[in-house]
Design goal:
This protein has about 150 residues and is mainly alpha-helical. The protein has nine helices and two strands.
């Protein structure tokens, strides 16, 4: 782990969130956002004749869904330091420099790179598993850590 990060965590008596907590929070957020998508498109899904039509319908709104994910992540991380999944798992995103919730630009940066990581076969998330500071690509670009609340 980076010595600076290690010193900050020790000084502030913080611990990094475990990979399992982060994965569970991710799963909760994905379920929640998928549920919102299904609710928004309920009439269209109900009218679909088969699974192929449902897949086509979902694909028609993929850009809107990615935009919703970015807005959701950026807003909750900026406002509360955690998405709903992270709140449930009692973990928190902090800026390394300030130890506070990320500001607007860092939250937006983090949200955008989070979606990019998803689009590139979740490689950014995989990176976090092997990183000593458990920083994913979106954590590295936004200079954030995910710690236990």
């Amino acid at each position: 782990m980076n010595e600076e990060i290690e010193n900050i965590l020790h000084r502030e008596q913080m611990t990094l969130a475990s990979i399992s907590k982060r994965a569970t929070a991710f799963f909760i957020d994905e379920l929640l956002l998928s549920f919102v998508l299904v609710l928004a498109l309920w009439d269209s899904f109900a009218a679909a004749k088969d699974m192929q039509e449902m897949i086509e319908l979902t694909n028609m709104f993929v850009l809107e869904f990615l935009a919703i994910k970015i807005i959701y992540q950026a807003f909750f991380i900026m406002q509360y330091g955690a998405s709903i999944g992270k709140l449930v798992m009692k973990i928190h995103v902090i800026e390394i420099a300030t130890l506070q919730n990320p500001n607007v630009l860092n939250s937006l940066n983090r949200a955008i790179f989070r979606v990019i990581s998803e689009l590139i076969f979740y490689l950014g998330f995989l990176w976090g598993i092997f990183d000593p500071s458990r920083q994913t690509w979106h954590d590295k670009t936004a200079k954030t850590l995910v710690v236990n609340a």
